[in-house]
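Hey L., structure's done. Input below.
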Amino acid sequence: MKKITALVMAMLMAMSLAACGDSASGNSVSDESAAAQGAAAGSGSEIAMEAGNVAEHSIEAIKQRGKLVVTTEAGYAPFEFLDENDQVVGLDAELAKKLAEDLGVELDIQNIAFESVVPEVQAGNADMAIAGLTPDAEKKKSVDMSDIYYAGGHCLLVLEENADVYTDAQSLKGQVIATQKAAVQEKMIAEQYPESKPLLLPDFPQCVANLKTGACAAVMLDTTSAEQYMKHIEGLAVSKAPVVSQEGEEGNAVAVMKGNEELLAWVNEKIAEYKEAGLINEWFEQAKKQAEKMGI
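Output:
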């Protein structure tokens, strides 16, 4: 239970900085991408329609530039989060580092608002996005998605005292379900819990903080993150209420610019290579241990 109080307080402070569901993200955005974000970012599940030049993001172009630019949102442990030195770490960060290493270039990983992660790639301001992204049909309209590198499902996180209360869509009728704005769970709430009230927040820590204060009845998120929260915050449980993923959408994938077939094929080749070598599992376990050590 070490650091639990500090974590909850930090989340509550973060929550206090955001209006209920309509505020902009409280995460810092690097100066390099701030201007581009304003032009590229959409709102909610909308994606910016102005696309960049694929040729500028070919393997050869990245090598000549000497830098692989990757967007992420570091509030999603153990996939991506900030360490004690405010460096982006986690499974996705390790994947990005290895991809850059195999290209023989430096890594420029940009921690930006989640709803801008994909639009930045589409607008040509980044080579790829690695941010716990589910390869759903909506994203595939705007970017190409790699093979899944980490498989996992989704669930509803509730207060332990309500684990036997909220067990299906009917029991959650009229109740507030929180999730991260522009995440795949936003669509899942609308489709699977249409009579519930969605609360869309900038990141999952704020969602969990709202759950702890009673501002929402449940939080929809991936099962891995739910397990992490339950380890470090008292009184949480996974609801028996089902959350169904579409076939082919049960996991995380890398996003590249639409039509960048060469880079996509190379990323898929590398994902297969890393999985066969056991690197994905190794990075995941390391990330979990680091997140647990930090109390997140």
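DSSP finds eleven helices and 14 strands in the chain. The CA atoms of residues 47 and 184 lie 13 Å apart.

-- N.
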